[in-house]
Design brief:
The chain is 50% helix and 7% strand. The protein is mainly α and 342 residues long. Helix 2 links the parallel strand 3 and strand 4.
Length: 342
């Protein structure tokens, strides 16, 4: 069968799937989003012994799919060459390492054929109702939908499938409240953290995720669900992690973020306010950054801002208050110009 290797530049990971039928491979190409498609030269050698891929023998469907897209040929060891190409394309140093997140394909059903996927509505096809819209409630969007679609198109190993079923049964019978399950695209987060561009909103999202995991860990009813979620999560992410390690790391991350940023309801910083200066002015100047990072980390900057606000107030008072007093004193009780600072 065919082999497909996916490389995620943002996450610095790669995975390989082999033994795919031509149909299953075309299904994968249609459902995954990628920036670059690279084809190994071994595809040019087909069963007829010719090097004109797609003209004789097999390869028609796959060739038709690839031919409509922009692709490049490459040769050599597929994994090494692909990683080399990716580093070249994204300008990464040779020292950058990519983690192998391949999940073994033993004892799992084969991925769906293209015909099956379109006929059941797992891939959007004109004239066929979308299966996911029937399966899931209308307010369910984004990552959960993609996850369920991926389970349909690439069924997991039988033991993982049984675990997911067991989780669903437990979830449908819980008597306590279940966390929100904040969905955050991991690639976006990794990129923002790498570039040091994550703002307080992103950190709040990370804290929400880890706090929800901890909430499940501390609740006896939800703890069983959390333990069962470990293996399906490993299959989805390629990250094999020990249960206790997960909990300890979540506690550490939650504590570190809590020490750094102001959370809902916390306020150790008030917007500056002075008489005779419109409050809108300070609101516009300070609301975009105050109340985000805790004051203890920026004491000097806060002192500078407060001093600047005071200086501004003194200047405005000295320059404009005499004018306003004059206008108010000289205008008739009705009509005439209003004296105010805008």
């Amino acid at each position: 069968g065919y082999c497909i290797i996916s490389v995620l530049e943002t996450m610095k990971t790669y995975s390989a799937e082999d033994g795919l039928t031509e149909e299953a491979l075309v299904t994968k190409l249609r459902t995954c989003r990628y920036h670059h498609l690279l084809l190994h030269r071994s595809l040019k050698q087909n069963s007829s012994g010719t090097c004109r891929w797609g003209e004789f023998g097999e390869g028609g469907l796959l060739w038709g799919e690839c031919n409509t897209r922009h692709f490049e040929w490459f040769e050599g060891n597929p994994v090494d060459e692909l990683l080399f190409k990716v580093k070249e394309l994204y300008g990464l140093d040779d020292e950058v390492t990519f983690r192998n997140v391949t999940v073994a394909s033993e004892n799992r059903p084969r991925p769906l054929h293209l015909g099956t996927a379109t006929q059941i509505g797992a891939i959007s096809t004109e004239g066929i109702p979308c299966l996911l819209k029937v399966l899931l409630p209308p307010n369910c969007t984004g990552l959960p939908v993609l996850y369920v679609r991926d389970l349909l198109l690439n069924p997991p190993a039988y033991d993982i499938a049984s675990t997911i079923q067991a989780i669903c049964k437990l979830m449908s019978n819980v008597t306590c409240s279940i966390p929100e399950f904040t969905c955050v695209p991991s690639a976006k987060l990794v990129k923002l953290l790498e570039l040091r561009e994550a703002n307080h909103i992103e950190f709040c999202k990370i804290k929400s995720v880890v706090d929800e995991i901890l909430q499940m860990y501390r609740n006896s009813e939800l703890n069983d669900i959390l333990k069962l979620l470990m293996d399906p999560t490993w299959v989805a992410t390629g990250l094999k992690i020990d249960f206790e390690t997960l909990v300890n790391e979540c506690e550490w991350v939650s504590q570190r973020i809590g020490e750094m940023i102001s959370l809902d309801g916390e306020s150790d910083q008030k917007i500056s306010s002075y008489p005779d200066i419109p409050s809108d002015f300070f609101e516009e100047m300070e609301s975009s950054w105050k109340g985000r990072v805790k004051r203890i980390h920026l004491e000097e900057a806060f002192a500078d801002v407060e001093k600047a606000a005071e200086n501004l107030y003194l200047s405005v008072t000295e320059d404009f208050l005499p004018i306003i007093s004059r206008i108010k004193a000289s205008t008739a009780p009705l009509g005439g110009p209003k004296g105010e600072i805008l």
